[in-house]
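Schema walkthrough. Field components (list of strings):
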Amino acid sequence: MNTLALYFHIPFCNERKCDYCSFISFCNKNDRMDEYVDALIKEIKMRGAKEGKEYKISSIFFGGGTPSVLSDGQMTKIMIAIKQNFRLLPNAEITIEANPESITESKLREYLLVGVNRLSIGVQSLNDKLLAAIGRRHTSKQAKEALSLAKKIGFKNINVDMMIGLPEQTLSDVKKTVKYLIKERVNHVSAYSLILEPGTVLQEKVRVGVIKLPSEDETVEMYNLVLDMLSHAGIKRYEVSNFAMLDYECKHNQNYWRLGEYLAFGVGGHSYMKDTRFANTDDFDKYLQSIENNTLPIVSVEKLSFNERREETIMLALRTREGLNLEEFDNRFGGHFLRDKKKEIEFLSNRGFISLRNGCLKVSENAYYVLNSIILKLV
Amino acid sequence: MEQNIKNIRNFCIIAHIDHGKSTLADRLIEKTGTLSSRELTEQVLDSMDIERERGITIKLTPTRMFYEYNGEEYTLNLIDTPGHVDFTYEVSRSLKACEGAILVVDATQGVQAQTLANVYLALEQDLTIVPVINKIDLPSARVEEVKKEIEDIIGLSCEDAPLISAKEGINIDKVLESIVQKIPSPKGDKNKSLKALIFDSYYDNFKGAVSLVRVFDGSVKVGDKIKMMKTNMSYDVTEVGVFCPSPKEISVLETGMVGYICASIKNVSETKVGDTITFSDNPTEKALEGYKDVKPMVYCGVFLVDGSKYNDLKDALEKLKLNDDSLHFTPEVSTALGYGFRCGFLGLLHLEIITERLEREFNLDVITTAPSVSYRVFKTDGSMIEISNPSLLPAVTEIKEIQEPVASVIIYTPPEYVGNIMELCQGKRGEYLDMQYLDKNRVMLKYNIPLNEIVYDFFDGLKSRSRGYASLDYEVNKFEKSDLVKLDILLNGEKCDALSIIVHRDSAYSRGKKLCEKLKQVIPRQLFELPIQACIGGKVIARETVKAMRKDVLAKCYGGDISRKRKLLEKQKEGKKRMRQIGSVEIPSEAFMTILKLDD
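Field assembly_structure (string):
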């Protein structure tokens, strides 16, 4: 039986969204959380009737928005519905994203109780000025407290999200944050360089010149610093932005990069099953309406062509430490990748951008920053 | 209709660019009722989109008009002429078919370089010149001064020159009266054998090559057996007609008339402009004096962004050539740009227009290389070759001497810009010949300047240094020995042939430096540090570096990002198709074009 990953989108945030955020989330609809949770549960039932029988669930991820803004008891309702409608593998990884300001002891206990075994905390930085500059609504103190609370209550698998390339950020800021994470023995770190998404407050601020971002070169230096420090502490990079202790890699995300199947629930959820990508509506009310009418809220469906699957396979595999397994690739897509792309592969390997080890094509540690150019040569 | 030769007037309008030639033509057509103002789209004679958009005339078009004067009906044949220096030869073609010329002078600008150049052409043909002062409605019009300029500089009496506004339709009647009164009727003998001059030709999908003719002796009608005197080929006439201004068939073209002849001729190369048409049997004794062959002045490589469309480019050039004999092209292969053509043009405007037509009318994305001129290279083995493609220049050791075309240049300018312009000409290796103060508003400068410098950026320089007030006319009149070198551009150590140029040794350094700087701006960062070098022979004279790409990775790529990310990748991949590969360096096609515009 095939495995499937489940994603649940919780599109709520307290007060307002962070200045850099382009995800679908609402900060004025918290009074409608009950309604939304009920709709999610109904969507789980609708899906469970079909996919629930076909697949076993290898991982579940609650993302947002801010899943931790859900009221006490709501996660329990959702998890019960999932377990009633889907079959979870015994070692299924179940992650919830949380923000320091909305974490409470009772919520954390509830998560553990219903089977959530991985916590992802949005720390971003331990410099209060930087946090304020990007519109986060918590302090470094709150972040530290949330982290220790989670450990105390019994979370064994904790990820911390951090950001680099923030306005006015320095190498020593980065160093301080990473040092703390290592000291606290977090198992997993996601280090993202800030990306200015169109339509965000931050993009507008940069455009009018209110704030200035570090240069490309400075950001790359910060990345290298994170890489060095974490790697010395045994937290190894296994994907462009993800670092983990051995066996703490995020299964849910690895499934994306291996082109595994996944099913998403809630507003704006993106799914991939049977070579087809499809997405739920971005519109909160339309989502509720659709579920109310017993219709799946799918608004776009894209069946991937052979070539598109091939491109995605290359594009995603090269993001990871495992790299692109050439034998598997050739078996799946025909041809002989090494031969077909001989010129490009030679060009890249002569310059140390990629290497071939154990039958896998891998991007070199210091070449991840130009991954896009590398992929462009190989697709 | 029986035509009385006494009542025919064949004339053209000559003017400096923008002095209102086409607008006046429109008014004449309207006034004579040839077309109603409703039928009259702005500037009817400029039939190409590009002509209308740019407000310039490229191809010449004849129009027949009727005008009643003192109770008699006159046939006025207007033969339009182009106004730009590139197309001087077309002007001279029109002139040969006429007895007179209307000289339009802008009352705000006065006599300009091409005013004079065109007057000289007209005088060479012994034409009667009728001066007309245009744009009198403008507040800045200086009618009396301009009249005096014409009298002083050109030596034409302006006593009863019509003062008009073509735009506002003022005094158009006066122009028509002057045409009838002053321009002589055609001479010629209608009883002699046919003698007709081809002053233009074009290709029509149904009729074949159509000859535009002026009949000097005799007459011609359908069924006549005609002969081209130069090619000695014979044809049966299938149609004769006149332009009103669209072609209209008539029964017979008689002495003095302007019209067209069709004879199922497959190719315009058989209807040679300047050739004389006569009857196969009983030909006229002597052909009319034709035109001198026009030689291309400016050359450049024309390539495609999408190299697989080579055949489309070939077809397109052949089609353009059908109606434009002055366009020359031969196949060319570039290591950087692939298969294309080396094309020869009359000048920079001609080059621009042809490339624009290739893009617009044939939907081709073209890349042109830097404009070059044709050099005479005398080799040590005693032979001489003409080179218009810099990358074909022989090795230095094989060259004894290089000669370059030099143009005699006439510039008209208000006196306050003389200093600027002299500085420009000096910088362009100009040889000063003469300077005359024509009146208090106008100075005429004469220089000899290498054509190579003129095609580089002389026009822009002249415009910016005179705030647009200076005008220019030039004609290539000799080849001169010159210390020329080939400047190569090396990208990551590899020569990029499409970027090579031939320059004078003295300006090689500054040109090389500028080229490198410009290329640095347009070449995107690559995966490695990219040196851009300008070299003469093996010697590097300038260098810039494009730093290696540092970061282009997308930090997050999870469930909802993948599809978007793939589409972005596909778009970038598509964009890469527009890139040219020089060794391991990728250059956007646009880079080849931007380097054409190296501003001072």
